Each structure stands twice: as structure tokens, then as C-alpha cells.
What we know:
Blueprint: H1 9-21, H2 32-35, E1 40-47, E2 53-63, E3 70-74, H3 85-96, E4 104-109, H4 117-123, E5 128-130, E6 144-149, H5 155-159, H6 164-173, E7 179-183, H7 186-203, H8 210-219, E8 225-231, E9 237-246, E10 249-257, H9 266-280, E11 285-291, H10 299-307, E12 313-315, E13 320-323, H11 326-355
Parallel strand pairs: 3-4, 10-11
Antiparallel strand pairs: 1-2, 2-3, 4-13, 5-13, 6-11, 6-12, 7-8, 8-9, 9-10
Helix pairs in contact: 6-9, 7-8
Amino acid sequence: MPLLDINSKEQIKKYNQFLEKNNAFFTQMIEWGKVKNDWEQYVVYTCDDNNNIVMSANFIAKKLPFFKKIMVYSPRGPVGDVNNKEEVQRLLDELYKIIDKKSIFCVKFDPLIPKSDDLIEKYNKDGFKIRKNAQYNSLFYSKYNMCVNLEQENLEVLRLTFNQSTRRKIKLSEKEEYKFEISNKTSDLKRFFNLYVKTNERKNLSGRKFEYLECMLNSLDPNNIKICVVSDKEGNDLASSILIFYNDRVYYAYGATDVTKNSKNASYFMHWQTIKMSFEQGYKIYDMGVVNNPDVTDGVYLFKEGFCRSSGFFEAIGEIDFITNHFIYNLFVYVLPLLKKARRMFNKLLKLIKLK
């Protein structure tokens, strides 16, 4: 049976063991379907002759309201040997036994594997498409990811992998009597969200709604999700983050800072405390997430590069799409991002007008 029975403890155990063995991304967890509760979830897999799972994908599906066609997406999937295009096709064939292929306009994967021109050429045949020069605003995840390698001899050696400016700012932050808290409390999620709203307003971003983040907190196992808050001795919250702990990685999923206060490198303090905690608990990677442009002119990249100097940035292959309706696909991939960009520019213009 290609569709995972989420009520079967035996099947769930087998699936989770497969995810652990292949060091899957946290969005491949079954629980992620509860977070994306406005999508339909289908966990699909293929097996070998001995009934061992060979490849799997946590698919989420949503119907476009106007065209009434479905997009199916496996965030950071599939899990397995993505170089084996035939096995990926077999996975799709299993999916089509569950969802009618005619009702789908696109099936989308975006595995966290290195960019490979040979693999791109291999996939850009027979209905598959990988856009080589896709802009970040047309992707679910940017292609550029940055991580801190925690597999070091000790914390001092680990700190030396950071650039000099980052090490200096961490040292200064440690003199500030900051308080670092980590919990699963909804009250701390509210503290995060207060900073998060300010951060998004400053950067002209829409961001997630509180209900979405609360659903994430309640859907994932308490061991898999934590909220960090850094505050000063007066009790002012200065920096906060939402972390996901899964397999050998700690993921910096969301972050927020309050630059209107005299924060004095609070964000550096928060990341260093998180990195120390991750190292001490035996995790191998602190995943600082994606950047849109791996260039020193990008402030987010510049900040993360300070911690990830030794590793640099990782360029993933991008989205692997299997297209069944090219007209709707082109609207979704090319036209919709332009409309979103125009809306952001319009909102920014309105804000400038109001300020005047």
C-alpha cells in the first residue's frame, strides 16, 4: 500500500525510522501535515522486494480556487536517492493512484541536495523541469542555505570558525547581563510574536500569523520545537527565535529582533547560546536557514556568514517540478510572483506616503 496509514503505529514507526536513517528535513515529519492544516496531506512511499521503504514523500496538496486544479508539494522531499529519477517517477505513479493525475497541474519537490548540472539535465526531460535561474521570490525555499558545522573538538574551536567581527560581538554581548530563556510556553510564543511583528514591519514583510505559529507549537512534539527569548536586565525582550530540533540538526526556523531599543548585539548572544546548547546536546548542524542572495550587499547573508564562515553557503538544486498543465504552471510560477512583488512595492509606496 503506497499511502501511509497514519493510524497504524507499525507503519508510522517504519516511516520514522526511514526518515531518521536518511536524515530527512523536518517538513517530512507526519506532524507537518497538522501544521499545514489548510492543505490535504498524503504520505506516499515505494518499497523494494523485501518491503523496505526505498523512497518517500510527505505530500501536501491544495486546489487553486479559480482553475480548480491541484498543486502537490513535498517540502524538502523526496526522501531517498533523488539521483534515481526512475524511483522518483515510481513515487509519482504511486501518488497518481491516490490523486487523479488529470486534476493536478504540478507536482513539486525541492530536496536539499547540491546543485548538479548533470542532474538538472537528466531531470529536464519527460515532463520534469528544474529552473536553473529561478528567482527566490518564485520558490518556496531559496536555493541558498547556510549552516554552522557543530562537529568540532570543543566550543572554543567552534567559536574560532566564526569570523572575527562575529566573535567580537559575541564577546561584547556576554558582558550585557542578558537573560536567555528557552521553552514551549504559549506565553513565550506571544513574546516572540511581538518582536516578529515589529521585525516584519521594519522589513516590509507580511510574515506568518500568530495562529500558524501557535499551530506549529501545538502540532509538533515538545522535543522538536522550542522558543528562545533574550531579554535585558530591565525585562525588555530584544531577540527571539523558534527552533526545530530534528535528526542531527537544529533549525533556526524564525527569528525576530527589536532594533528600536539599545539591543547591543542581543541577536549574536541568542545565536551563540543556541549554538552552545546544540553542541552540548550532540547535534551536528545548526541550520541558520536560507538567504535570498549570497552576497555581502545582502544584510541577512552578511549576518549569517559571520557564523557560517567556514562552511560558506550551500546551493541546492532548486525545485524539481513535474508539470501536467503548462498554462496554469506558467501562471503560478512566473506571473503570480510578479503580482506579489508589485503588491509589496505598492504597500511600501503607501507607507511612504503616510509618513509624509
